[in-house]
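Methods: holo model generation. Sequences were used as deposited, without trimming of termini or removal of tags, and paired with ligand SMILES retrieved from the corresponding compound records. Each pair was processed once, and we did not select among multiple samples. The sequence and zinc ion SMILES for this entry were:
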Amino acid sequence: MQVYELNSLFDRLNRLYFDSQLKLIVRWSHRSPPKASRSIVLGTYNDKTKCITMSRRLNSTLVPLYVVECVLFHEMLHAVFPREEHRMHTEKFNKFERMHPDFERARKWEKESIKLLFEKPQKALPFVS
Ligand SMILES: [Zn+2]
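and the model returned the structure below.
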């Protein structure tokens, strides 16, 4: 079932924050990350393919729109601010990310409620934000 339409969310953010300059592909992941995965990955950006992959677990009525939007926004920023040496999230990146009005409450939701998305929450699954 489609809860969120990624392309329209992308277009909206692109217009609001990037002057519609970003040309990227956005899609849901096909399957969940492997069970052995040590962290929960909500989104990834591949600079070679210019493709953002969003965890399909976010395509759920359990997840508020602002959370999906902030994860997508975060991945879009990776297309704008490339990594510097070993830093994925540079100061410029972090500063820009906080411009999103829902940044704080999205982070809060992720910390408190992300476990809702996992039917069988593994014990002590570390969460990397
Ligand atoms: Zn990131």
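The CA atoms of residues 29 and 55 lie 5 Å apart.
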